[in-house]
Amino acid sequence: MKIYLAGPISGKSADDVYNRIQTVSFRLKLFGYEVQNPMTGKGHLRTEKEFVAKDYRHPVATNHAIIERDRWMVKRSDVVFANLMDAEEKSIGTIMELAWAHDNGVHTVVAMPETGPHNHAFIIETADILFHNAEDAIQYLRLLVQDE
């Protein structure tokens, strides 16, 4: 089963983003998932102190390349896991990924605090399953793949 990992990137350091993705990816792969994430092919950005939301010049990180690759990965996934637990501001990319998933019938699992920047009807309603902590969401994902 393919799973796409969504979550805040803009404003975060490369270490924060890559560590979050690697930690969750490791666990999900142990459960049996094929993990896809928005940092695929972007190793050249590993030294970023703070990611910005636009205007990278590397061919795999242009505005258009990012949007099209992420949309493609979301559409070919069985599940999108959006972890918004550490989002300090709205994550427009994650919101887009949830919309693409919702529009394409991809199962969406969202972890977000009860209050915060994503406490909005569009997020709440595009989440097939909504958890208020990441660990509960990960345990649900474990059960989901084991029942396959």
Structural class by SSE content:
alpha/beta
End-to-end distance, in Å?
8 Å
Order of helices and strands: EHEHEHEHEH
Count of individual helical segments: 5
CATH topology: Rossmann fold
Q: So what's the overall shape?
A: globular
Give the strand tally. Answer: 5
Q: Report the average pLDDT across residues.
A: 85
Question: Can you list the strand order of the major beta sheet?
Answer: 2-1-3-4-5
So what's the CATH class?
Alpha Beta
Which regions contain 5 or more consecutive residues with pLDDT less than 50? none
CATH architecture assignment name: 3-Layer(aba) Sandwich
Biggest pleated-sheet summary:
5 strands, parallel
Percent helix among the residues? 40-55%
- Please identify the oligomeric state: single chain
Count of discrete structural domains: 1
Radius of gyration over alpha carbons? 14 Å
Percent of residues in beta strands: 5-15%
What does this structure look like?
With 148 residues, this protein is of the alpha/beta class. It contains 5 helices and 5 strands; from the N terminus they run E-H-E-H-E-H-E-H-E-H. A 5-stranded parallel β-sheet has the order 2-1-3-4-5, with helices on both faces. Helix 1 packs parallel to helix 5 (134-146). The radius of gyration is 14 Å and the shape is globular. It starts with a strand and ends with a helix.
